[in-house]
Every structure is written in C-alpha cells, then in structure tokens.
Design goal:
- By secondary structure, the protein is an alpha+beta fold.
- Helix content is 44%, strand content 25%.
- Strands 1, 2, 3, 4, 5, 6 and 7 form a seven-stranded antiparallel β-sheet that branches.
- Helix 2 runs antiparallel to helix 3, helix 7 packs across helix 10 and helix 8 crosses helix 9.
- The model has no long low-confidence stretch (mean pLDDT 85).
Length: 279
C-alpha cells in the first residue's frame, strides 16, 4: 500500500491497524517481503498488485491475505478508503482447532488459490463494524485489551472465511483434506525433502494415492507441486535478497549448485543468474 496519509494503531508491536482515507495514485516498483501476516482491505479503489510473481487487477471492494515470506509489490493503485491489519504469528495463529480460520486455513498459506475475497454490501457492513470496534479498542487502555483485540481480529477473519466459502465452497472430504495436508507438509519441509515418496510416507499413503488425488482435482502432479514451491522460494530470494545462487541452492536443500541451476532453468526457461539480472 502507499505509505502516505495513514493513521496507525499499534498494540505492543504484535498487532496493528492502518486506516487510509484519501484518494491518490501510487506506483511502487520495489518489491517488499511480507514479514508478518497481513490483511489488505481496499474498500474503495482500484489498481494492480503483484503477489509472489502473480498479477492481480482489482477494482471496488476486495480483501487480500498475505503470509510471511511472500513478495508483494504495487504496480499501480488509486485508493480512497483502505485498511491494513498486520499481526505476528504468536498473537493469533491457531494450530490445534478452528482450522479453517487458522494461519494455515483457507485464507493464508494457500498458494494454490487467489489470496483475495470480495465482500458484498451486507458483509462489508459487518467488517466495517469490526474495524470500528478495533479502532476504539486500540485507543483505550481498559482491562484485557489483548483479549478484546484478539477477539475482534478473529471475528474479522471468521467473517472473511465465510465470505470466501460463500463464493468458493470448500470440500471437507478426506480426499481434499489429503491435498491440504500435503500442501502444508510441503510448505514446512520443501527445503529438506524433495521426493514425493518422503511426503507420502509422512501422510501414511502411497505416492500413487497422492498422484490420484491430484488428478481428481486437476492440480498437476505432487512432484510438480514440490518443484513449484522450491522455485517460488528461489525466485523470492533472487528478487528480494543479495544471496548468491550457490547459497540459495544450499538453502533449498541442493548439495550441488550446478544441479540446482539446471533444475531452475528447466522449469523457468531461464537460469537463476539470468532471472536475477532481468529484474
């Protein structure tokens, strides 16, 4: 987002809300690496954002959900009303229950789907009410402020999940769960484990079963999913850091940098050095 004319509310550097009330065009060419979990709600505006090398054009009312490590940049934007919620993992993320609204739920860490939802008028009114309560709570010093802020954030996320489920019904059968569990495992282990069989073993299924699961949902292959996750992280590091190709190869679990270069080139049709140079 454009960092001008923004009112900021912060709680102990672990949760913040930024409110934008202006209309101004902005172009940001330098990509930013997302540090905390972030929700961008462009209530009135239009523009083009790039998230992990994918382009998203928007106009009107839209929410974007970003996770730590993602690369975000603004190509163009003209914003009249917008909000940004940012929070660290320890403040909110739910690991053991309420999985749909956790940081590994349907909004965050979900790279195979577009990271956005579009609320209607009724849903917008609910979100506005929660934002108003958050601002009031941020500016108070009453007892249990942490608990109240946490509760309002969860309300905002639950409402967003419901909006997404309304337009993109979620499947809850065992087969869709297998894909989700696989994708979460890959996200946690792709720098160490590169073989489909490694993940199949952890999930207690055969590699063939995983492949059939992907075929059912027309998602390519498990091997391609792993490769694409590795390449995505490589592109993030090539674009956002000054880390050498050799170091990136080691960071991603390749003992031979030359093999990593061939691996990357085969998928992207350009070498890591050429990709970095093109930026």
């Amino acid at each position: 987002m454009a960092l001008q004319d923004i009112s900021t509310y912060t709680y102990k550097n672990i949760f913040s809300l930024r409110a934008v009330q202006f209309e101004k065009a902005c172009v940001v060419s330098k990509p930013e690496k997302v540090v905390d979990y972030a929700i961008f709600w462009v209530k009135e505006g239009k523009g083009t954002y790039h998230i992990d090398f994918k382009k998203y054009d928007f106009e009107g009312n839209v929410l974007f959900f970003l996770s730590p490590g993602q690369v975000f940049s603004v190509e163009t934007e003209s914003i009249k009303v917008a909000y940004q919620l940012s929070f660290v993992k320890d403040f909110y993320c739910i690991e053991t229950h309420d999985k749909e609204v956790s940081c590994n739920g349907v909004l965050f860490n979900n790279m195979h789907e577009a990271p956005l939802v579009q609320p209607n008028l009724k849903e917008t009114a609910k979100l506005e009410f929660i934002i108003a309560n958050l601002i009031e709570e941020f500016t108070s010093s009453d007892t249990a402020q942490y608990d109240m802020l946490h509760a309002y954030l969860k309300q905002f996320i639950v409402s967003s999940v419901r909006i997404k489920k309304e337009f993109h019904p979620l499947k809850n059968d065992e087969e869709s769960k297998l894909f989700k569990d696989f994708s979460l495992l890959v996200d946690s282990n792709f720098t160490k484990l590169h073989a489909v069989s490694d993940y199949a073993t952890k999930l207690g299924v055969s590699p063939k079963s995983l492949t059939k699961n992907f075929q059912k949902y027309k998602l390519g292959t498990p091997s391609d999913f792993i490769k694409n996750r590795i390449v995505l992280e490589a592109k993030r590091q090539l674009k956002y850091t000054d880390t050498s190709v050799k170091e990136i190869a080691y960071n991603l679990g390749f003992s031979d940098p030359a093999y990593f270069t061939r691996f990357f080139t085969k998928i992207e049709n350009t070498s890591p050095k050429q990709f970095k140079k093109s930026l």
